[in-house]
Amino acid sequence: MPLPVPNAVAAMQPELTAWRRDLHAHPEVGFDLPRTAALVAAKLRAWGLDEVVEGLGRSGVVGVIHGADGPAKGAGERILLRADMDALPMQEATGLPHASTRGGAFHGCGHDGHTAMLLGAAKRLAETRAFSGTAVLVFQPAEEGDRGAKAMIDDGLLTRWPVRAAFGLHTLPGMPVGAMGTRPGPMLAYSDRFRITLRGRGGHAARPHLADDPIVAAAQLVAGLQALVARRRDPMNPALISVTRLEAGTTDNVIPQTAELWGTLRALDPALVAPMIEGIRAMAEGVAAAHGLGLEAELGLDADPALVNDPEVTAFAVSVMRETAGAEAVDPQMPAEMGGEDFAWFAQAVPSCFAFIGNGGSAPLHHPAFDFDDAAAPHGVAWWTRLVERALPPRG
């Protein structure tokens, strides 16, 4: 069991829960976050943060808190804390009183909890200021596939507020509530999307010899892509090709003109990416040629880099986890996972650590019955707060 949080943080539980459930009931997707971003900015201003900037990366919010010695003495020492704000474009099925009020939008990945935890840390840090230097709190849009982190960086985030380290925190079902974990090195995978269109000649299902059937070719390609992963890379070096969507035809007695495949490519080792992309292209070209079909292969549509944790920054983050949660509640060598996370753009730019906090026995992430466990929020606030105090210790 994790250690109890400090009394002042524990006392925040009712308001953390209220903020989180309000965000959950009013989810917004991608970059279109007018209500969420305005709520975050209003609270930061109400708590007296030194700077509050809206609209960075289209709809991101940045809150800046100087320590007790003020910006003149400590502004050069900065660290960045990041939470994502966006929901998923999916339907909720929890039946909870605070369930989404917006059809087709749902906080199914815990970003409502992430935002609430960083808001709690902002309030606490603004009250205590028991540190030197500057904490840069980033509330990011569009983590779910729209590269909001990159948008904020491209909009000058790290130029305007250069930082020596960045930290991210994500909820994790299956880990005890308030327990924490991370790992040095590769943590989450490079992820990319592809779309392949096979163009044939349609015809009657009773006369396949008079058609060039793209469905048969598509089936062969799907099977071949699995062999590409299984037989053309080191099995000790994880990689995935998943065909997640296949569209062809409109009825049962017509061979269609086209078949389209969509999918994802994932790898922990960046060196695998180029060979796998070329393998997909070569296999698609071979299958299309063998069946007499035209081919359009769109590869590398929306790549995010692998998330690689800096060993030194991660060791520091783990030491703070052990202080706030207790050594027995911390896993410093979590297995790497094949999911993607656009915090990777921060980790490419500055030494970083991305960590997880337990959400207990909830439904999995991205499941329609998922809900963030509000009991975890004070543990996240305690870690964020102590992280800043330890990374930017008060000057004597």
Question: What is the topological layout?
Answer:
Layout: H1 7-10, H2 13-25, H3 34-46, E1 51-56, E2 60-66, H4 70-74, E3 78-84, H5 111-128, E4 134-140, H6 148-154, H7 157-160, E5 165-172, E6 180-181, E7 185-188, E8 190-199, E9 203-204, H8 214-231, E10 239-248, E11 254-255, E12 258-267, H9 273-290, E13 294-299, E14 307-309, H10 311-325, E15 330-331, H11 344-349, E16 352-358, H12 377-391
Parallel strand pairs: 3-4, 3-5, 5-16, 6-15
Antiparallel strand pairs: 1-2, 2-4, 6-16, 7-14, 8-12, 8-13, 9-11, 10-12
Helix pairs in contact: 2-5, 5-12, 8-9, 10-12
Physical arrangement of strands within the biggest beta sheet: 1-2-4-3-5-16-6-15
Coarse morphology? elongated
CA radius of gyration is: 24 Å
Structural class: alpha/beta
Count the beta strands: 16
Q: What would the average pLDDT be, to the nearest integer?
A: 95
Q: So how many helices?
A: 12
Report the portion of residues in β strands. 15-25%
Helix-residue proportion: 25-40%
Q: Low-confidence runs (pLDDT<50, min 5 residues)?
A: none
The termini sit apart by: 35 Å
Spell out the helices and strands N to C: HHHEEHEHEHHEEEEEHEEEHEEHEHEH
Major sheet characteristics = 8 strands, mixed
Give a verbal description of the structure:
There is one protein chain. The mean pLDDT is 95. An 8-stranded mixed sheet has the order 1-2-4-3-5-16-6-15, with helices on both faces. Strands 10-12-8-13 form a 4-stranded antiparallel sheet, with helices on one face. A two-stranded antiparallel ribbon has the order 7-14. The longest helix is centred in the N-terminal third of the chain and has 18 residues, at 111-128. The radius of gyration is 24 Å and the shape is elongated. It has 12 helices and 16 strands. With 396 residues, the protein is α/β, with parallel strands linked by helices.
